[in-house]
Amino acid sequence: MNNTAQKHDATPLVAESYYAAVTDALRTEAARLLSEGVVTAVIGYKEGRRHGTAGPAIVVDPARANELIFSAACVNNLALYLTKAKKGVAGTGKIAIVAKGCDLRALAGLMAESQIRREDLHIIGVACAGVFGSGADRREPLSAGNLAGKCRECSVGAPEGADIVIGTLPPLPELSPVEAEELARLEAMTPAERWAFWKENFARCIRCFACRQVCPFCYCEQCLCDRNRPQAVETTPRPAGNMAWHIVRAMHLAGRCAGCAECERACPMDIPLNLLNRKMARELKELYGHEAGLTPVEKGPLVIYREDDDQSFIK
Amino acid sequence: MKHDFEPKIVAFVCTWCTYAGADLAGTSRMQYPANVRVLKFPCTGRIDPVFILKAFQKGADGVLVSGCHPGDCHYMAGNFHARRRFAAFRKLLEFVGVDLARLEFSWVSAAEGGKWVEVVTDLTERIRTMGPLAEFKELETEEHWSGRLETAELKEAYNNI
Amino acid sequence: MSRIGVFICHCGENISRTVDVERVAQVTARLPGVAIALDYKYMCSDPGQNLLKKAVAEHKLDGVVVAACSPRMHEKTFRNAARAAGLNPFLCEMANIREHCSWVHEDREEATAKAIDIVKFTVSRVKKDRALAPITVPITKRALVIGGGIAGIQAALDIADAGHQVVLVEREPSIGGHMAQLSETFPTLDCSQCIMTPKMVDVANHPNIKLYTWSEIEEVSGYIGNFQVTVRRKARSVDEDKCTGCGVCMAKCPQKKIDNAFDRNLGTRPAIYVPFPQAVPNTPVIDRDNCTRFKTGKCGVCEKVCGPGAIDYGQQDQLIVEPVGAIVVASGFDLYNIGPKPADSPYEGYGEFGYGAIPDVIDGLTFERLASASGPTGGKILRPSDGKEPKQVVFIQCVGSRAREKGISYCSKICCMYTAKHTMLYKHKIHDGQAYVFFMDARTPGKNYDEFWRRAVEEEEAVYIRGMVSRLYQKGDKVVVMGSDVLVGVQVEIEADLVVLATAVQARTGADLLAQKLGISYDRYNFYSEAHAKLKPVECATAGIYLAGACQGPKDIPDTVSQASAAAAKVMTLFAKDQLEREPIVARVNERNCAGCLACKKVCPYGAVEEKEIRDRNGNLIKTVAYVNPGVCGGCGTCQATCPSKSVELDGYTDEQIMAMIEAL
């Protein structure tokens, strides 16, 4: 299981003209914001070096606003560039950021955690039909066959709460939720089978920490797992340390993760990391009715309590 | 009575309720299996899930977390926060394949010496029948990175060198 | 390398009977970092402690483990011994091998092995212990008392008499509170005003009490010993320094038709008024909502007639900051309103009682005003509708109290007694009248309380009917009361001239808002929560804030006064020292690592975490981090378990100490 969906159904989800129109509107808005001095920079996407790819772009000159694009290749969660751990962008004045629905959830989470302030941001929401999964042939248009797994069960295609929303999506087909199905498959296993599944997956981990670097919520100035007095998690990529690292990471993201699945996309070893995040998100929804949303919630599910919280697991 | 397997049980307890409850079991000369090692915390709110993980990694066959009943917390709300934290954490452990029968949570007040004995005895006996927690111990002994090096991409890259 | 000393106690035979203490000493002596390990018969005895002290000096120990009983028993003893030997007391730890080992296990092998383990992980912990110094917090020896009812008055007088400055803040124009409205008090039937007004005058005259009436709490910041309280002095429109209290303004005010809230709207008052004749201070206030001058700009009679020229129409609200070291909250209660549900109340009224629309259905406090010699009827009990003497009066208890269907399940505590009192007051004034009481239970615990109630029933001939009233309705000039007598099992119908409802005591409207300003907790009824129901009944969980009176829960006058004096005693205890010294088990933030997510602030039960801005030398903001105020921190450590990067650490229970123990297992 990874971000690549089954290879079938190549019907385009949206017409190419949709991305062209969104790109145009995006460039116009970015140029206006920069030339009117509303913002000092626009964080968006530009064409990648290889055909059909895109990467993050920070535009400060209105004349270069036409470098910005939006397409199904715009996979990155740009909220990452606003957090403290990635200094240099923030703190230079009001900044515009291009945000898909899942990115906007990350922005909302970061606002709730005092990492960014709404008044420092101009959010350009883009209605998104989904992004390419890993391994997708970029010459083909976005279809149910090459869509990222997370996008198959996306509920925030048209982001709300942005300063402006660009694009109106055509009706999209209902797709089978492959991540939820995978989750159900794992949950149906015995503990020993699950342990074997994860052991095999985590054993591949090389501790490159790409999952951490790409996560908008891993903004700690020093990661607990980099500390050695005391050493909470072994740092070498040995199986024991790997297991501990992924458990700690999932726990620290529980109730905070916005579900952008960037960790899984960035993982060079194809570890299905978003499964852990999705599992925790679902448990916290079941236990406390919490869901990562588009508006900041001051206190997440694990920093608040109710006196009548479930305690059926406690003797 | 001697057993074939004596499990190692680690208990993380708060000082105000459960530690005092265990003291009461002592002053009342109640008897329970000697497998448990008690670590004292000011409050269950201080107990980090990382400690439970560490205990399993360091050879514990079972872990007990115990504190004040809801509403009795010396610090008002520490146990409420702990309750949510552990409700989430046990779900995570279960998902990665840890048998939750090895992890027990309880509220034991300073007056519940008997309950302490019962909780510790039940957990010890349960884990005795389950046998040692092999998973973490095996992981601990595996020294080598066991990733699959035989992927097509890697092979191609290797051949290109 | 550490130099740890391990001392294993036999505790007579309590430990050595099941634990091979010599072996424990032999094994632990070989642990890395252990300089000496020895066993002794009674470590807590003088020779035992001397052994420890001598060893610290001889072996230059930098840590001590005493393997003996529970730290709850003797930790202080051994830490003091360590201190006496020149070692920081927090470098001395106990290994509990008695309550947790020798007393609960019979097998000598197992118990010994366990004891060795316990000593082992305790040794690992001690190696990571850091020397800690007690924390001292300076104390501003001034107290704030919020509320000028009997609770606030008593607390203020007690603290002031002890020689400390007190700031007393009252929302109304006069102190006195509900007690000033009462006619006579149970169980002695002495006149409320007679016992109350001298205390009010004492407050006014006390050199240590600064009284702010017609004032409210705007903002509270700071912590125990060091609060900053902003008081809003609402514009009185009368200069308190100039006013002599002659009352001419009130007499001459042309607008006299304003409902007098103090008299439960039975009488009227002028637009410039004092709530009642014995008011303290005796300075009137202009009710700007009803004053012709403020409404139309035309009038100004009071200004013309005022000899000293005290009227000041242009007066503005004033904000005054008062530094105080302790706060007593005595903000009192409100009564349940049976009328239609007010917008700001969570509680429904009583449709079956006519939603308060029948004029001769009144509440108990209104009855107090009717019975009061200084009330609107001069102490004659006359019914509101036509001013006639009621010959049959029905009292209904538990109106709103113990009424789960209305959302209140608690007992209001005072109604049984005051209803019994009402039947007596009524009988004493209208000898040929008959009082009926509908009640669920008569709850009369208290000194001379049951005797008082029996007197109402047996001597004063009040008829008590056990059961609730199902309906009230107006029939001619009577109020028909329909209810049931559950003891006899019959329906009862009484044609009453007057019905008095013992309505529930509830928290003040806005009690939650005041609690939020103070940072104290409250229950689901908005009554303020004490720190411990039994052992800390007047303390709030927030250090330095104390509770007195009905703001904490329904209470009668004796209980209120006791609690007020108790709260005052707590304040005086705090003020008895110049500095507050506390155990240094508090959380500290590593500002370099803190990313400022403030999760710690969100979980802190004490509100001890603040935001702190880190700036460079040019004053530019680098980042905002968390800061734990050591004076407020309770030491639970929830913050550290919550912090993803462990940038906040609880001294005495650091991750290093705990991990060291786990690793030694």
Summary, kept brief:
By secondary structure, chain A is an alpha/beta fold. Chain B has a single domain, classed as Rossmann fold (3-Layer(aba) Sandwich).
The largest sheet of chain C, given as strand count, sense and whether it forms a barrel, is: 5 strands, parallel
Q: What is the overall silhouette of chain C?
A: elongated
CATH structural class of chain B: Alpha Beta
**Class based on secondary structure composition and strand pairing of chain C:** alpha/beta
> What is the β-strand count of chain B?
4
What is the fold named in CATH at topology level of chain B? Rossmann fold
Find the CATH topology of the largest domain in chain C.
Answer: FAD/NAD(P)-binding domain
The tally of structural domains of chain B comes to 1
Largest sheet of chain B: 4 strands, parallel
**Low-confidence parts of chain B, pLDDT < 50 over ≥5 residues?**
none
Task: Explain the overall architecture.
The complex is a heterotrimer of chains A (315), B (161) and C (665). Chain A has helices at 16-35, 101-112, 178-187, 191-203, 210-214, 239-253, 262-266, 273-288; strands spanning 41-47, 54-59, 68-69, 95-99, 121-126, 164-166. With 315 residues, chain A is α/β, with parallel strands linked by helices. Chain A folds into two domains: 16-166, no CATH class; 178-288, no CATH class. In chain A, strands 1, 2, 3, 4, 5 and 6 form a six-stranded mixed beta sheet that branches. Chain B has a single domain (9-160), classed as Rossmann fold. Helices cover 45% and strands 14% of the residues of chain B. Chain B contains six helices and four strands. Chain B has helices spanning 18-27, 49-57, 78-96, 113-130, 134-141, 152-160, and strands at residues 9-14, 36-41, 62-67, 103-107. Chain B has a four-stranded parallel beta sheet, sandwiched between helices. Chain B starts with 8 loop residues before the first strand and ends with a helix. With 665 residues, chain C is α/β, with parallel strands linked by helices. In chain C, helix 13 links the parallel strand 22 and strand 23 (463-466). Chain C is elongated and about 100 Å long. Classes of the chains: A alpha/beta (315), B alpha/beta (161), C alpha/beta (665). Chains A and B meet through helix 4, helix 6 and helix 8 of A and helix 2, helix 3, strand 4 and helix 5 of B.
